[in-house]
């Protein structure tokens, strides 16, 4: 579990950490969107330079970003390979059956690779520099307009923050149950697929049952502390949007304009 | 003495069972009192706390808190007077950090943010957890978690604190810290403490002990009187206190006065018997 960097928070302090999480959250999505606008070497090089600059500003060890790529390494390799051998071309360098290898294929495969790297790096940057609770606060604040159509924004936000808060507890619980079942002779990760799936039943059922009992305890504890239905509550945690964040939006706008220029160049 | 909680002819049966969990129970709890409710598993202790806090609804009988008979409308007001610290600290944390969790009860009351910041600091200082303010609950020890839970309860300034087996998952050190802290707060802030446990040793700080069995009160008295029951406590699924066990061994060869002696009294008594002066 320790090896997964994606979605993990890394305590630290730098300008990226101090940015408003709402801005960071939205702009990360925005960036993932504009990555698809890039269409030539210059525009990709520019976006890569931008991402590397942001990574540099965060003062986080670059190794963490490389680690972030690891879980989807095979997916990237597979997609790049597909592009490499299945891009149709009039001047193939090499040809065998349905497989073609050409200069165009190489270029497109390169683009796809950079695109993956850009998206993974920028989203790793978001999660490494933003605590889960900041992310759930951002989601609540972004969804706020939906209140007008009776969407239960506060409840969804509370659910989200409780879910995030219970992830480590449930991971602990799972390890405990697995060890307990191992002690009783259950063998995980052995045998054929069906047998492997079956061996997970003794984990899943106790895990579900204990989730239910945790949920019951928590609901009772929340009610005893005066939680009614999310209405009429005040907030302890307040996000503040300041000059830095305006600057970030402005910077992003400039990036977009340069990108559009490079694209048609 | 002023009554803070008055329970009259309370009955409760869980929907899935035939046997009543609480049978015609009446009990008065006084202001600033430390009351221990003891009894074996399934004697109705936890059910009683949930009934007092209105988390479950009684089949019949009345509960009066601070002069007000509890019904569906005023239960939220009554709840503000009561703070409950539950058994498993992991299952009662709502907030993502220590300060968020302490603020939860205040947020529910709609307290303005500036006041909340002050209250959170005050409550954390009371339990000596101020340095842990921004920590993730998962990184704390069991005793520290339970102290944060107490801070969360203290922040809302309740008059009654119910400890529902709050120390049962702590080590002896953590248990002592939590109990001493609660005792100190009780004296400072005129709180009423209701402590629920099945460990007889844990009741030594209390002024009154109620023994519950099968949903009924079977004994109600001062700790000395309850401890005096000695091996008869086993009938109610309770362990005999240490000094009472020791006395029954010593009695075989030595002459000891009748009745229960605390460990300290027993020590004095033994000194007296064996001194040659």
Distinct helical segment count of chain B: 9
- Main structural class of chain A: mainly alpha
Number of domains of chain A: 2
Low-confidence stretches of chain A: none
Q: Provide the helix percentage of chain B.
A: 25-40%
> Helicity level of chain A, as a percent range?
55-70%
Sheet bearing the most strands of chain A, described?
Answer: 2 strands, antiparallel
Strand order, main sheet of chain B: write it out. Answer: 6-7-8-3-9-10
CATH architecture of the largest domain in chain B: 3-Layer(aba) Sandwich
What oligomeric state best describes the polypeptide chains here?
heterodimer
**CATH homologous superfamily annotation of the largest domain in chain B:** P-loop containing nucleotide triphosphate hydrolases
Number of strands of chain B: 10
Structure summary, number of beta strands of chain A: 2
- The count of helical stretches of chain A stands at 11
Radius of gyration of chain B: 21 Å
Major beta sheet summary of chain B: 6 strands, mixed
Strand order of the largest sheet of chain A: 1-2
Beta-strand residue fraction of chain B: 15-25%
